[in-house]
Amino acid sequence: MSSAQRPSYGTTWYAASMIPIPEFGRLAFDLDVDVCVVGGGLAGLTTARELALRGWSVALLEARRVAWNASGRNDGFVLPGFAESMDRVIARVGLADAKTLWALSEMGLRYVRSAIAELKMPGVAPIAGWLKVSKTDNREKVLANVELHAELGTEVEGWPTERVREVLRSGHYFHALHLPRAFHIHPLNYALGLAAAAQAAGVRIFENSQALSIDPAGVRKRVTTSAGRVRSAQVVVACNAHLGALLPRIAGTLVPVWSYVVATAPLGARLSEAVAWRGAVSDTDLANHHYRIVGGDRLLWSGRSTTWEGDPARYAVKLKADIEAVYPQLGDVVIEHAWSGMLGSPLHRMPQIGELTPGLWLASGFGGHGLNTTAMAGTVIARAIAENDDTWKLFTPFELVWAGGRLGRAAMQAYYWWFNALERGAARAARAREREFRRAEELALLRAGAEQPQIEAELGAVVPAEQLPREPELAQLPADPLSAGEAARSNDGQ
Fold it and tell me: Which residues touch 97 (CB under 8 Å, ≥6 apart)?
């Protein structure tokens, strides 16, 4: 297959700014190795690299190009935790095991940071900080989330509304949770750097080599492609919702979800006037919205998830409207790149990690929270195979559950719509309360005989009573959120 015929990385901003590596050839012969990894996304690449570093011979099969889908198309946020809320994780496994799982998720974050620094990956550009901002004035909920993160052992800060609005100049936002050690990256360049590192460690990578069948019986398992076969003692299936006919029972446990992402044309100085924060931002628990500044003065913005494959151009129009609603001072923004990527979400929203049958392993179901959890999964499975480590058993409570087929997808989409409608309604109500509060304050000042300049000065400092005040337990925004110290921490593996 010629280079022109090979599947591309699409119309993403990542593809336009990627640091290319040489393509990997197709498997066209039979091969014997210790481990065969099926899937060339981040989970497969991490697993393969870690096993090779431990001295095992590894072949990796990828149906298209390495990191062609979710691994190279995602938002680029590297956060601790999972797609599922930790409250629900605690309810299922108890606080002690939940803390251990959280620590594993943080290990995944550190793995990504260390790999970038140690391998000196070009074009990945980690930038520190993640803000989870609230679109309502529910102070107690934010503080409870801050306290939960602190109890789990994470460095965390709570930001009051006025500090949030110093860096995110939008009336849509109130309080925020800040994770200073989270960061964001160029995920495609990271994945390609990881592929190059895996190859350097001895992994034999084969692109355009779709696994058509797996025979897991016996001491030597067999993975068959259209032009060759791999025999190995261990097989790791590191695929997501593209499993299809290869392992239909596993594929049926995942709800496919498409996320839509846009990147604007350069916005110049007006972007920094609206968004004076270079870290990542999420203003939801689900789809709407996640964003960050890339390329100096572009806004990368995602949301509007669906359980079917939609036209990215159609959703780009909606995302453009979302940007302009949150930051009207940006004016008419031009969308230069629009794309989608598919991920697989189990009903419990936790990774599927473990041994299916003796010698057949699964790493899947990362559910939109994959940069840290794929690194974690690859490390956990490599340790299980090479060192007989049983850490993977912590994930056994999150069993393989049928996701309901088409009815399950419809139910999931209905839930997304319901959740987003509820969230938007609550946000509108919070903004309306704030407007009413300000109007009441203005009227009170007028009745007191204040002059207009005084009224404007007073109102500029007023926030609703329900909003977060400046209190000792709430961390204050550093003078420079992207200080050299934070940048150094994001690169030194701490």
Answer: 394
Please, what sign has the CA dihedral across residues 169, 173, 174, 175? negative
Interatomic CA distance for residues 268 and 69, integer angstroms: 30
Neighbours of 390 (CB within 10 A): 11
Report residue 300 CA to chain centroid gap.
13
Give 422-473 pLDDT, tens digit per residue: 999 999 999 998 888 888 877 776 777 655 555 455 555 444 434 333 333 3
Give the CA distances from residue 192 to residues 40, 104, 326, in Å, rounded to whole numbers and listed in that order.
10, 24, 34
- Reduced to 3 states (helix: H, G, I; strand: E, B; else coil), residue 224 is strand
Domain positions in the chain: 3-74+188-254+348-403
Helical segments of 361-483, H only = 370-387, 405-447, 452-461
**What is the distance between the alpha carbons of residues 353 and 70, in angstroms, rounded to a whole number?**
18
Cis check: omega of the bond before 289, within 30 degrees of 0 = yes
Q: Which residue has the tokens 């109890």?
A: 151
What are the E-state strand segments in 295-425? 298-306, 335-345, 352-357, 360-364
Distance of CA 254 to the CA centre of its chain: 17
**pLDDT per residue over 355-404, tens digit each?**
999 999 999 999 889 999 999 999 999 999 999 999 999 999 999 999 99
- Per-residue tokens: 43: 């989970």
CB 195 within 8 A of CB 48: no
Q: Which helix (H) or strand (E) holds 149?
A: helix 139-151
Which token pair is 202?
Answer: 């001895």
Nearest 5°: phi and psi at 235?
-125, 130
- Distance spanning both ends of the chain, measured CA to CA: 44
Looking at domain 3-74+188-254+348-403, does it have CATH number 3.50.50.60? yes
